[in-house]
Amino acid sequence: MSAPEFPVGKTDSTLLERIQKNSRLPSLGLSVARIVTMLDTDDDSMQELGNLILSDVYLTQRILTLANSVMYRFHGTSTITTISKSIVVIGFEQVKLLALALILVDQLKNKAQAQAMKVEFSRALHASTLAQEFAGALLPRYREQAGIAGLLSGASRLLIIYLEFPAHLAIEEMIRAGESERSAFKQVLGTGLNVFTHTLIEQWHLPHLLKSAISGSASKHDADSAEGKFARLVQATNSVADCYRLPPGKAREQALAKLSEELCKQLEITGEEFDARIEGAKKKMEAIQGIVGIASFLPAPELAAAAEEAAADSPETGSADASRKQEDTLAADMVLQQDAVVSKNPLATGQPSNTRELVLSGLQDVSETIAVGQSLVTALRSAVECIHRGFGFARSVLLLKDPASRLFRARIWCGDVDKEQLHLLQFNATSSTDLFALACARGVDVQITDMEAAAFSARLPPWMKRACPSARSFVILPVINLGQPIGCLYLERHCVDTTISAEELTLLQTVKNHIVLALRTIKA
User: What is the pLDDT of residue 520?
Assistant: First the structure.
């Protein structure tokens, strides 16, 4: 099946507007800016980088896995269980690059789109690794900057996959048919790739050195300056990475041979030096690709499958499901939103003023518990304690689903809970009216800020007043594994609460992801 049709010659204005208005891009840009800022700081903070990594459970596990891989185990034989030690073993700059790369990629739920994103991410990461290898020999002062520039040079391609996946598939098909990438972009999107790259780097306020290298705008008059040499090196290593988008074989080897001759003259190096840098990058990429689960190119059969899945996910075929979900949704005033802007006094509810620091510190303990293979109960208790202590809830309870009875029952708890109330704290997964069952079935986070308010009191299940007599406000966080609810977190306060902020919700969801990871990886 061919790729979903995309109007050839489409103006880029719509895409540029979506770039500027997309709700996820500001937070993505902030994360990029945070990591790039670390680059320009003399006293780079390992703690800040560690906190950034710990806020993403999958990034945490990837970094820990890489630190314990054969490539790095020569540092010692003991298992590495903390992010701080992983940073020391892998290297500060390499961890920053991986964090930056995975932040750009781990955003998608569509399998075909995610696979395409991983392939493009592989190219960007390869360009980054090549840039570091060549800069290490030619411009050692700029080695780390070269890695960042090489990686971000692929950000605009990643963005097109993210926002205009049918357009990406159409471009890929044209390239496979023999069209040049520049011509394919121009025909499909009506403009060159450089327009999107320029938009991105302007929004992310990158330093001038990185901006000129990524956009290729370094002045020709500065050709012999450090900035000019840096820009040429980044552009050259991007060209090498592009060659590796071709499937292994004669075509790739011929392209590399031709490029090698050109770049050796441009970078003023020998063929042996060129080959050594290529081989060094190859070894690093082999280790990283296996751990983060990426491939260097998307074979034609998989491209066709991606196109088919993208077509199946189009609005026309999904309209029935969409309307059914619209009719069957929870009240909007109960569902927590990622973009919530909240003004609150956390101390009035008993919440510590340093919630973020407490939760991130607790996540370090949870990660270590999972990494060393402690018992499932220990890992789950550590996660619940992390939330309970960090947010200062009166009661924090993890309920898990019993496959036989289909009941969600309290298994792990912290705070003011007696055994009788604990026995009552359960609900049936099949109920079509129970607020808890509905939240779990639909996988949405719910908060009731005041149980006595008329808008909320009528929606509470009958068992709740007996099980939670002192509750005045609470949060329900479904625990989902492979699309299926396997449990939920019930978090209670004895006072009226204010809406959870976007940052707090992210922290809660991160701990929840660690719970899923523990349930998937530790045998009971």
Answer: 85
Non-local (6+) Cβ contacts of 322 within 8 A are: 315
| CA-to-CA separations, 330 to 140, 268, 323, 336, 369, in angstroms, rounded | 56, 64, 14, 11, 36
3-class secondary structure, 76: coil
pLDDT at site 125: 82
- Rounded to whole angstroms, what are the CA distances from 322 to 221, 328, 334, 358, 509? 56, 10, 20, 39, 25
Q: Which two tokens stand for residue 487?
A: 């449990």
List of residues 6+ apart from 218 with CB closer than 8 A: 212, 227, 228, 230, 231, 232
Quick: pLDDT tens for 383-395: 999 999 899 999 9
Helix (H, G, I), strand (E, B) or coil at 8: coil
- Output the 3-class SS for 329-377: CCCCCCECCCCCCCCCCHHHHCCCCCHHHHHHHHHHHHHHHHHCCCCHH
- Name 438's Cβ contacts closer than 8 Å, sequence gap at least 6: 330, 431, 432
User: Mapping DSSP to helix (H, G, I), strand (E, B) and coil, where does residue 182 land?
Assistant: helix
pLDDT the model gives residue 30: 57
Q: For 18, how many CA atoms within 13 A lie in the half-sphere containing its CB?
A: 13
Residue 48, both tokens: 């800040």
**Beta-carbon neighbour count of residue 43 at 10 Å?**
5
Q: Write phi, then psi, for 164 (nearest 5 degrees).
A: -135, 65
Which H/E stretch holds residue 447? strand 446-448
* Cα 354 to Cα 56: distance, rounded to the nearest angstrom: 19
Q: How far apart are CA 253 and CA 127, in angstroms?
A: 17
Q: Which residues of the chain are under the pLDDT cut of 50?
A: 1-4, 8-12, 40-43, 75, 221, 297-304, 306-307, 310-311, 313-329, 338-344
Indicate the DSSP class of residue 430. T
Residue 249, burial from CB neighbour count under 10 angstroms (0-12, 13-18, 19+): exposed
Give me the residue label for tokens 């939240």: 439
**Which pLDDT does position 299 carry in this prediction?**
45
| pLDDT attached to residue 99 | 76
Q: Tell me the HSE value of 277 on the side-chain side, using a 13 A CA sphere.
A: 28
Length, in residues, of the chain = 524
Orientation of helix 57-67 relative to helix 92-105, angle to 10°: 140
> What's the one-letter identity of residue 489?
L
The rounded radius of gyration (Å) of the Cα atoms in the chain is 25
Provide DSSP, 457-500.
HTTS-HHHHHH-TT-SEEEEEEEEETTEEEEEEEEEESS--PPP
Tell me the C-alpha distance between 459 and 236, whole Å.
Answer: 62
Please name which of 258, 374, 259, 297 lies closest in space to residue 121, comparing C-alpha atoms.
Answer: 297
492 alpha-carbon distance from chain centroid: 29
